[in-house]
Design goal:
Order of helices and strands: HEEH
Helix content: 10-25%
Largest sheet: 2 strands, antiparallel
Strand content: under 5%
Low-confidence stretches: none
Distance between the termini: 27 Å
Length: 85
């Protein structure tokens, strides 16, 4: 979900109405279209809570910072697509 939010998720409007109505017409990247992603959960003494959502908010900033480190180009809008130029 984090990769999709950074690179493909977009709601568009036509005549002030959202063109996407549900997941059937919303571009969600499939597992075979994304790079390997590793998430580490740190063991601690805190009570058990959900561990899937905390990785989503920082994913796009981490990805865009990695792109900047590699290319020197800042990503300032989401979703983004890299080009060769």
């Amino acid at each position: 979900m984090g990769f999709g939010a950074a690179t493909t998720h977009q709601i568009t409007f036509k005549d002030k109405v959202a063109e996407q109505h549900n997941f059937y017409d919303y571009p969600i990247p499939k597992i075979n279209k994304i790079p390997p992603i590793e998430i580490y959960i740190i063991d601690n003494e805190a009570d058990a809570v959900g561990v899937e959502e905390p990785g989503l908010p920082p994913f796009a900033p981490a990805l865009t910072n990695a792109v900047f480190d590699l290319t020197g180009k800042r990503i300032k809008t989401l979703p983004f697509e890299l080009s060769e130029d």
